[in-house]
Amino acid sequence: MDWLFFGEISLAGLAMGGLYALIALGFVIIYKATRVINFAIGEIMMFAAYLFLAFAGGMEISPWVAVPLAVLGGALLGGVIEKTMIRPMLGESPISVVMVTIGIASILVGLVELIWTADPQLLPSFLPREPVFIGELYLAPKIAYGFLIGMAMLILYLLYFRFSRGGVALRATASDQAAAYSMGINVRRVFNLAWVFGSLAASLAGILVAATGGLSPQFGIIGLSVLVVVIVGGLDSILGALIAGVFIGWLETVAGAYLGGEYRMPATFAVLAVILVFKPYGLFGTHEIERV
Amino acid sequence: QDKDPIVFGGSIPLSGVFAFAGIHLHAGLTDYTNWLNDQGGINGHPVEYVMEDTAYEVDRSVAAFKKISGNENLATYYGDSTGFMKAIAAEVNEMNSVLMSGASFATALTNNEQYPYQFIPGPNYSQMFGIILEYIASQGEEGDMPTVAFVYSDTEFGKDPIENGKARAAELGIEVVEEIVTKPGSVDVSAEVLKMRRARPDYVVFHGYVLSPINEFMVQMRQMGLDTQFMGTFWSSDKLIIDKMGEDADGYMGVMPYNYYDSEEGGPMLDALRAQAEKSDPEAGYRPTGYMQGWFNAMVWTEVVKRTLDAGKELTGDNMAEALASIKDWDTGGIIGIPVTVKDMSFPVGRIWRVNASEGRYEPVSDWIHLD
Amino acid sequence: MDAVLEVDNIEVVYNKTVQVLRGLSLRVPRGAIVALLGSNGAGKSTTLKSVSGLLSLEDGEVTAGDIRFNGQSLKGRPPEKMVRDGLFHVMEGRRVFEDLTVEENLVAATYALTGRGQGVGGGQEMVYDYFPRLKERRRQLAGYLSGGEQQMLALGRALIARPELIMLDEPSLGLAPLLVEEIFEIVARINREQGTAILLVEQNAAVSLAIASYGYIMENGKIVIDGPADKLTDNEDVREFYLGVGGKEGEARSYRDIKHYKRRKRWLS
Amino acid sequence: MRIGDAKQTYLADEAIWTSSTQKIWFALLLAVLLAFPFMASSYLLYLGCLVGIAVISTTGLNILTGYTGLISLGQAGFMGVGAYTVAWLSLNTGLPFPVTLLAAGLLAAAVGVLVGLPSLRVKGLYLAIATLAASVFLHFIFAEWEPVTGGMEGLSLEPAHLFGLEFRSDFAMYFIIVPLAVLALFGAKNLFRTRVGRAFIAIRDRDISAEILGIPLLKYKLMSFALSSFYAGIAGGLFAYFYRVVTPESFPLSMSIFYLAAVIVGGMGNLLGGVLGAAFMTLVPEALKLLTAVMTPIWPNAPVFMSPMLEIIFGALIVGFLIFEPHGLAEIWRRVRRFFHLWPFRS
Amino acid sequence: MNILEISQLSLSFGGVHALQDVSFHVPKDTITTVIGPNGAGKTSLFNCISGFYKPQQGEIRYQGAPLRGIKPPKRAALGLARTFQNIALFRGMTVLDNIKLGAHVHMKTGLLGSLAYYGRARREEMEIREEVERRIIDFLEIDHIRRQPVASLPYGLQKRVELARALAMRPKVLMLDEPVAGMNREEKEDMARFILDIREEWDVTVLMVEHDMGMVMDISDHIAVLNFGQVIAEGKPQDVQQNPDVIKAYLGNSDIDDLRKRLNPDREAA
Ligand SMILES: Nc1ncnc2c1ncn2[C@@H]1O[C@H](COP(=O)(O)OP(=O)(O)OP(=O)(O)O)[C@@H](O)[C@H]1O
Ligand SMILES: Nc1ncnc2c1ncn2[C@@H]1O[C@H](COP(=O)(O)OP(=O)(O)OP(=O)(O)O)[C@@H](O)[C@H]1O
Ligand SMILES: [Mg+2]
Ligand SMILES: [Mg+2]
């Protein structure tokens, strides 16, 4: 066995996994507050990436300004979506809301095609292009820096929810909206912030992923493949998103490298199946209370 | 004009994954039809082009076909995907009244028994690989052949020519040192690039992509100091690559059966095409290969219909297929640089072009290659 | 006397079709305990929900009348704002956050203090003082508490919020007799020590009339009879239908010999 | 305005149609369904067949997701199993369609049971993603098991046949698809007025209490999976006969989402809702294209501009309907009906 | 004779001991009530009998045979029926269907029969319908609501439907978890009457958990008191009522006048 090769592959996988974790974070934050899997996450990522394209490519704003601008734009989009399309669904069954997010995904794809056409795009490069070497191991620069930026954001979120009341408000809202209101929790605001911060994480991930993989109106599909990550980690666990993201990224890459690209998905889904048998709520997900 | 119109139909992917090409196909078909009508149609018959958007989904393409074929007296039809071409085959065979071609260059469609009324307006994907491999072989010599790696997407489209391509490579004595399958579209390919770093192929042939991940392979492999030559098939050889990749695209090669819109070649039809394109949308400037493909499609339809009518025959599937098969040494007026002959319902011809990034266009690096 | 809550002739409709309240009025004097009694489905919980604004979550709407808290109309005020202004609704059926621990449930309640310039600390200790059992279970998920423990937690959350008016919806539901006493004593204590007014919805008429100074009885969406608690206790219908005291003698009726026919309530005739 | 009828027997009380008005309406509907293929254009006929297939599959998914509360994103995979079964059998054995369709249903049901096994422990959205995993595996098998599935190329098959009759055209297929769809609906309707259907609903509403009341959870969840996939298998089999070609890409994930959307937009746990949802999801994109057709003569570039617009409108319609009526089209339908029942006396 | 014999039952969740060494008997054809403070383990005890919780130790014998290892649905089929503390009706079904669901274990129709609704399947449905109508719906006076979805019913009626559903299970032991919680006096009286009548007419043993002492003392034949997962007293109502341990742990002084003084000292003074 070629250990150097295995090392390099693993490193590439782990780095990609960091970005998965960041996308997963987008799912988790929104799920934590609303018990809804947001199927439009991929499209929000896409939208932010297009915004970046417009800022950095079209208007030629420096990437270091364009990235934050686009990320904020994505977050704002999340907030607007929540306010106009999710809020009226307050109190309805989560599955209906999930369906609404699917409708939103379709709207966003249409919008992007309308504004930026259906042509595939590449983002202007804004990350250093010199190869990164860790010891002898080569790592593509884009994913290396993408990983670092993503991790920084993840850890920020993790700390916030560990050490503030915010996490409690989020979970209380998810658990019982009416009761949360009666505690003085501004449920609408919690929903809104959850969407804003979820979309913020997703937007950053969107730009970083699009920077390595290119961009097109079908970009959003990546959101679906990250579902594996959130399920393995546990739908409402930020730590789970982090660990599962890195793990799934690694697994997928190694499976792809050694077995062939067509084995990437089956490999990760096989792991998902095995994990669910032993941990029905993922590695760190909250167990549903079962009482009579 | 009081003659019955001849109807060209189409299931066109104006939205969905293939929309980037569909929009230009549509423009090509539309412009050709308008141009043709300005010339007086086909033997005095006006031509109508009737289409619907399919979003590149098979069931919607089929729906569009049923709708259009139900309402119109269809002569020819443009199909947007291999899946559609296969799904509709049974029906088309039974109808025996429509000749079909489209965006798919799938190898299977050149099987005349299964698809007697469907043709390919260019070489099929296996033939494209053949042309590419022939070019590669011409760059080496007996006993010292270059090595090659295939990179293709995990789709029917992507896998289409691989078996034939490998067989052809073996015939030519070219070693396939690596074979990489990826998801289509936006994926991270760092791990695959690492495999390339070990395989060190002289040539990499991409198939089943439009843009990504070709750019990542090229950039990353060059960052690693490999001096591989990168090549791609029809849908991977559009100007898009230059527009989006800029300098990074320099040296990339593609196989293309038609002249590029901005090539230095000329010819009466190519000039007519440019004039019509300019007329219909003066702003648009360059027209992508999808446009050329749409135009050429309609040209072939016209030729087939004309030949059938000239022979005093009805426009049945059989008659049109026969007329198509009779095309031999046909001068396309500069769309294709040499006279072409139909073989197995396809036009097995092409040329290797190379990106000149500073000029921002493809330039020919080989002669026209006509497979026999 | 100055009223902390005034409900004026309100009408409530659910789903734009079902009318539940038909011109209901009541008032809660500052610092007083007022009981609201009534049979099942009379609309007691609906009344509380209209006050606290939670009605909108269930597709209900106040179509007429007015509600005033501290003299200010509550129309159009979002529910969380009222809580922060000091109007706390302890909902029917406890409604603890099941996936949160006991402690986190109490933390969630500190949101009620938002914008009041008070610290959020100290509240938990007070709650554990009143309900030592909760302290033992502080790290346990609230969903696994027994019914009574959950009721304590629900009350504990109200304590944390230091409100001016607590609306309690059936606090004795499912509680052991001793605990009912205990809880009512605590309610009385909160009322006395902190001057918190309390609007109490109860099925346990005996205890509620014992603690309250004034009582309302509602049926079918309106108040049918009201008065000072002592007066109500002596009312013959109240005695028969709410207190289970039969006949003139004032003897408690036994469940064993219940008549199979029923006397019509006077206020319905 | 309709007046309730008094029932003489419990049987009459539990009948599907409890009034003669309803019976007349149903007879009328059957007549329309029968006359339809003789009057419709080939395009409408094609759409009719598509809706029929969608109705069968949606009804199946509704049994599982709407009535049993087990969200599934595997429906396309199960349809694929049915389609490949039919394709393989018709290529290799030449059996007539009732046999191949039955086999398709049964094999899909067997796969469904396998996929349903984790459902005892895995719940809600977690289960949904687990079923998604199943459909990824199935897709993998379709694509890679070349000797049986024909790999990426897929399989082409001969038209359905029975007693020497060939069902080549859409016209002929209509007479297989629509009766089966009606039968599927009847089966489901019966199911939910008997013991097994009640058990499904009980599991959806409160699984633990249901178990304590005597319903073995695993058995009934698997039964629901089996039945739902059986329906999917039949629908997939019909799909195969209808298009006469089956490839792995015929059953993408988006198709599973399509069916879930049909169930939800139609109204979960409501058979009529499933029918409406299936029709909505199939027909609305087609109907929207009429818009383009209207605009093209005035504005030649309309198709290019309109197609993203249609995507936006389609998404907005789903969102709008759900916001307006989260319980789906069935609920809207009910409102409309109530309006007409009360009609002369409405204030 | 004892229809249920519970011996040395222990159940704990992590560190919480819900039941410790609980032993007591339920004599056949009685109304036996379990009382005890909140969290004493009463509902947990029911759950052990139903088979939803698996006790770590001890044994439950039903009609002389141990229940261990028997799954909940089977126990239901054996005649152990119950209602739930927090109403557990199936909100998506009508009252009638909820009740019929109770009869599930006594029916045999399989999947195919259900789909066809023909022959035995239909006959069986009709038989159940008839039984439910005659013996249950009429008896509990809920005929006017049989077609209504349960979600829209007032609380008191919901409890009654739960009772109806339990009766449809053809119980030998009917376990009622707080049947009159949240009801007013009038409704409690109705419920008490039903319970007494059921015992008499249906040949059923009633095992009940209830906090309303008025009703418990009036209608129970036998009472067991749980505290912190342990039985602290057992016997006839009067005996239990006098038991100082029970008073201390559970009953309190329950003198309403005394309570009034403590709750409302000002008013009493005035
Ligand atoms: N969300 C709702 N939608 C429709 N009707 C409702 C809703 N909530 C309550 N109702 C109806 O309103 C009436 C009054 O309900 P409410 O809960 O206010 O009664 P209550 O007096 O609190 O009764 P209980 O003693 O049972 O708590 C009942 O008939 C009930 O069915
Ligand atoms: N599934 C569970 N997980 C953890 N703890 C539990 C669980 N079920 C019950 N408990 C604990 O066991 C103890 C007994 O609970 P149980 O519900 O049996 O009490 P109860 O006697 O019915 O009380 P109440 O009268 O309030 O209903 C409680 O402390 C409760 O927190
Ligand atoms: Mg109430
Ligand atoms: Mg209990």
TrEMBL record, chain A:
InterPro entries per record: ABC_transp_permease (IPR001851), BCAA_transport_permease (IPR052157)
GO cellular component, one term: plasma membrane
Matching CDD domains: TM_PBP1_LivH_like
Compartments in which it is found: Cell inner membrane
Pfam families noted in UniProt: BPD_transp_2
MF term (GO), any: transmembrane transporter activity
Origin: domain of life: Bacteria
Keywords assigned: Amino-acid transport, Cell membrane, Membrane, Transmembrane, Transmembrane helix, Transport
Membrane topology of the entry: Multi-pass membrane protein
Transmembrane segments: 12-31, 36-55, 61-81, 93-118, 138-161, 193-215, 221-251, 263-284
GO biological process: amino acid transport
Family: Belongs to the binding-protein-dependent transport system permease family. LivHM subfamily.
Protein name: Amino acid/amide ABC transporter membrane protein 1, HAAT family
From TrEMBL, chain C:
Keyword Nucleotide-binding carried by entry: yes
A single MF term (Gene Ontology): ATP hydrolysis activity
SMART domains on file: AAA
Keyword set includes Ribonucleoprotein: no
ABC transporter domain span: 5-245
Pfam families registered for this protein in UniProt: ABC_tran
Gene3D superfamilies found in the cross-reference section: P-loop containing nucleotide triphosphate hydrolases
Family: Belongs to the ABC transporter superfamily.
PANTHER family the record matches: ABC TRANSPORTER SUBSTRATE-BINDING PROTEIN (PTHR43820:SF8), HIGH-AFFINITY BRANCHED-CHAIN AMINO ACID TRANSPORT ATP-BINDING PROTEIN LIVF (PTHR43820)
Protein's recorded name: Amino acid/amide ABC transporter ATP-binding protein 2, HAAT family
Source organism of this protein record: Marinobacter segnicrescens
Automatic annotation (TrEMBL), chain D:
Keywords (A to Z) from UniProt: Cell membrane, Membrane, Transmembrane, Transmembrane helix
CDD domains reported for this sequence: TM_PBP1_LivM_like
Pfam families cross-referenced by the UniProt entry: BPD_transp_2
Cited PANTHER family: ABC TRANSPORTER PERMEASE PROTEIN, HIGH-AFFINITY BRANCHED-CHAIN AMINO ACID TRANSPORT SYSTEM PERMEASE
The protein, known as: Amino acid/amide ABC transporter membrane protein 2, HAAT family
Membrane topology: Multi-pass membrane protein
Subcellular localization(s) per the UniProt record: Cell inner membrane
Any one annotated GO CC term: plasma membrane
Transmembrane regions: 24-55, 95-117, 124-142, 171-188, 222-244, 256-283, 304-324
TrEMBL record, chain E:
SMART domains: AAA
UniProt KW keywords: ATP-binding, Nucleotide-binding, Transport
Domain ABC transporter, chain residue ranges per copy: 4-253
Record has Ribosomal protein as a keyword: no
InterPro entries recorded: AAA+_ATPase, ABC_AA/LPS_Transport, ABC_transporter-like_ATP-bd, BCA_ABC_TP_C, P-loop_NTPase
Protein name: Amino acid/amide ABC transporter ATP-binding protein 1, HAAT family
Annotated organism of origin: Marinobacter segnicrescens
GO cellular component: plasma membrane
